[in-house]
Structures are given as structure tokens and as C-alpha cells.
Amino acid sequence: MVILLALLGPARPAEAAGDKRVCIAASESAQRLRKEGKLRAAREQLAVCSARECPALIRQDCAGWLNDVVSSTPSVVVAAKDTQGRDTMAVKLFIDGELVQERLDGKAIALDPGMHTFRYELDAEHAHEDPVAIREGEKNRVLAVSFQSNAAAPVTPAAARPAEPAPTAHEEPSPTHEGTTAATKGPAPIPLGAYVFGGAALASLGIGSVLLLSAGGDARSLRSSCAPSCDQGQVDSARSKALVGDVALGVGVVAAAAAVWMVLVKPPAPAPKRDAVWLPRVTAR
Which of 73-82, 220-229, 231-240 has the lowest average pLDDT? Predict the structure, then answer.
């Protein structure tokens, strides 16, 4: 609300007409890129319009948006192990087909939210590729990759196994010996409510963001065209958009928290039933 009222106030003169045009263009471009999820490109444009050469009101808006974009930009950290299971930095990293690092450095890598393909190359014979979903606001997510092969346990050849004694007694099924393999519990399914609240959170956050951006655009238009003597109806419309946008963002945050809570407290899945294994019982004659 404070930013909206400031936009409707009297504008200060720009230091230079050329700088003002560049600042306005960078501000508008940043809002479009932010809406498209291109947070890294949006951050570059916001750095331009928040520079000291830009008019005070534009600089103030862009600085606030820049803080929001920086906090929303996700990042990952790659941790790799070589064929011996030891930590290594000697791995080439490709993201979406582009070489990002010739050698890992252990530092966080900023990315746009969405699906990305990560390819790790230890050498010409050892490479690994994974699709990874990167979420907005996810910071320093560790992506672990190992080039160590899981060698199978050696199998004793049939010729080397000790010979079994010839049967000398009558064999009959016995119910006194049962299989000893324990049944493990499978992963519990995610509750339906988590999907419902998750979808509501995404919708509310999207609507709130669009309304706030639209309110900011209306305010700038009023400031440049008629401030401080703008029509009260136009001013109220911009303020209403901002208010509804704030409410939608609040609803989105609450719905997201509910979805996370339902996922964390989901009940364990029941253990699958297993039939008893019948083994022979030897009785002497």
C-alpha cells in the first residue's frame, strides 16, 4: 500500500531524459520476465532500473522488486563422488545442454524455476544425466551424483558347492517352519487433500501476483498522466486491485502451508500380507 500511494504522489524530475526511458523500459521488461518465470533475466533488468541514475520513484519500486526476485530465485549445489566413492570436484556440469562448469566448485548455482536436465561427466566413460524439477524459492538444494558402480556379490559355482546328502527318510510338508523374510511397509500415498490445497495455493499466488503487478502498472500510468489530480474512481480501482492481490497472496500462503502439513503427517501404508513358506519336515522310519 505504501508503494502504491507513493506512485500516486507528485513525480520528481528525472536526471536525464535518456536515463528515464532506459529505466522505464527495464522496469517493464523485468515485470514481464518475472511473470514468465525468467527470474535471472528479471534480476538483471531490475538491477538496471534500481541504479542511482534512475528517477527516485522508479528506483524505489525496482529495488523492492529486486529483493523479492532474489529471494525467489532457486539455487542448487552439486555434490559428486568418483568411482571409488570419494568426494570429487573433477566433474563437468551441463544444464539443459549448456556447459556451466568445467569443474565443480561447491558453490550454489542460481536457476529459473521449472524442469532442467543436468548432465554430469567424470570422464569419457562415466557420465550421468538426470531431469530435475526446480521450485521457486528453493535455496541451495543439494544434487548428489555418484559414479560408483554397485558390484554384485560373488556367486559360488555349482561345482564348488558341497554335495547334499542323499535323502534317507520320508519327507512330508510341515507347517512348523515359516518364511523368515520380513514384509516391509511401502511408502504411503500422498493424501488427495494435499493436491487440492496445493492447486489452490498455486492459483491464489498466481492471481495475487497478477493483480499486484496490474495495480502497480495502473498507479504508474496515473502518476505519469494526471497525478496529483487524478479521478478518484481510477485511484480507487488501483487500490482495490492491490488489496485483492494482498488477500490472494495470503490465501495462497495458507493453502501451501496446509498442503505441506498434509504431506508431512500422512499415515504409513499398511504392510503387504505375505503367505507362509512351507518347508519339508524329515521324519525317520
Answer: 220-229
